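Q: Could you fold this chain for me?
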Amino acid sequence: MIEGDFQDFLIEKPVCLVFWELNTPLGALVDYLKNKGFEVKGIKEVKDLLYWLNTANVELIILGASKLEEVKEIKKFIDEKLPIEKRREIFVAYVVPGGKTLHPKEVFLYSANLVISEEHLNEFPRVYERAVRYWDAFYRNFKKAYSQITSNI
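A: Sure. Below is the predicted structure, expressed as structure tokens.
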């Protein structure tokens, strides 16, 4: 579990949480995310996820695992316990060996915004940016309507 620090509450950048149990080094991915303006933090369990959700502005969660069993509890929390309005604000990406990169059915089956094969990780910037454009277009009308409804309450 993460030992919190008051400095965590002072983070102003959007936060990217990364669970990583793959052999591929994370260096280039972390560099890309930092260049995109993210504060990158590692997580290992649901308690870590909860800590950051309650402490910072989490906008991206990347789960890199050889087997879904490794992220079963985190996935279950995201899918079943994270309030839906909060879930719609967080982009969730899975990096898995042999995954079907950008394939809509694969994304649906993972309840994710992006699935990328570990073998395509070197293409992460292009793949991620394409998936974000699709996600933005998909939720644009929902977010507009939700904003109008909540502003009238």
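A (continued): The chain is about 45% helix and 20% strand.
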